[in-house]
């Protein structure tokens, strides 16, 4: 997948998420309910989204930590196996 395809995919996902959020808020705000009920729904949904975001952040941090640890182990193994003379500054890599 090229960088342009990835950017298009990311843009689409951002647009989809924003569209869903605007649609949800519009539906809640224009629904025939009392103001107190509407505010309660918005607050509950906000809390749910916050919890999901915190969960995703935590999961992402764990996965990045594991990937970093694995990368460091791999580099150490390569170094110990005699790959000291690798020229990682070579522009042809």
Low-pLDDT ranges: none
Instruction: Give the beta-strand count.
Output: 0
Which radius of gyration do the C-alpha atoms yield?
23 Å
Structural class: mainly alpha
Write down the domain tally: 2
The outline comes out as: elongated
**Quick one: biggest sheet?**
none
Strand content: under 5%
Euclidean distance between termini CA atoms = 20 Å
Question: What order do the SSEs take from the amino end to the carboxyl end, as H and E?
Answer: HH
- The number of helices is 2
Could you report the average pLDDT, rounded to the nearest whole number? 80
Work out the helicity level: over 70%
Brief overview:
This protein has about 90 residues and is mainly alpha-helical. The protein is built from two helices and no strands.
Q: Please, could you describe this protein's structure?
A:
The chain is 80% helix and 0% strand. The protein has 93 residues and is mostly helical. The protein starts with a helix and ends in a 13-residue tail after the last helix. The mean pLDDT is 80.
């Amino acid at each position: 997948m090229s960088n342009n395809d990835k950017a298009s995919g990311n843009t689409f996902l951002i647009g989809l998420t924003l569209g869903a959020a605007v649609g949800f808020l519009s539906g809640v705000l224009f629904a025939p309910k009392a103001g107190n009920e509407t505010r309660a729904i918005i607050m509950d949904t906000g809390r749910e989204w916050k919890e999901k975001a915190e969960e995703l952040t935590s999961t992402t941090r764990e996965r990045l930590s594991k990937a970093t640890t694995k990368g460091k182990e791999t580099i150490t193994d390569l170094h110990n196996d005699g790959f000291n003379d690798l020229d990682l500054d070579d522009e042809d890599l």
